[in-house]
Design goal:
This protein has 4 helices and no strands. With 129 residues, the chain is mainly alpha-helical.
């Protein structure tokens, strides 16, 4: 966005998948402000398109529509710098609380990586022997 290379960012320099995902995420957030006033194929500008697309998306746990943060560039920037980190922190606290206070899955728990194996080998529901 500011003339720096995507391959050599100041942060997340590693080659791990997590670093690459972080670089893409940060780039996509910065791209919002670059595209803000630019023409959009569905609506007049990217900002107008965001207001229309985010009218049915809410800040988790609040019911506040994200469209309210998209009317002005400064409110979107404020949301990104203040509210977004707070929502992420609250979600992390919620996950931590659930890990502490809810029991682990029982012995009948099937890891997601084995679901296809289990269903492919079950023939009773398909009429097989």
């Amino acid at each position: 966005m500011r003339g720096t290379s995507f391959e050599k960012p100041p942060c997340f320099r590693g080659e791990s998948l997590l670093d690459k995902q972080a670089r893409v995420h940060i780039y996509s957030l910065a791209l919002i402000f670059y595209l803000w006033d630019r023409p959009h194929y569905r609506n007049g500008t990217f900002q107008i398109d965001m207001v229309k697309n985010l009218r049915d998306v809410a800040v988790p746990g609040t019911g506040i529509s994200l469209k309210w943060f998209c009317y002005f560039k400064w409110t979107a920037f404020w949301y990104l710098l203040v509210v977004y980190p707070l929502v992420c922190f609250a979600a992390a606290l919620n996950e931590w609380y659930k890990c502490l206070h809810y029991p682990k899955p029982s012995a009948t728990y099937i890891p997601l990586s084995q679901v296809n194996f289990v269903f492919n080998n079950l023939t009773w529901f398909a009429g097989g022997q």
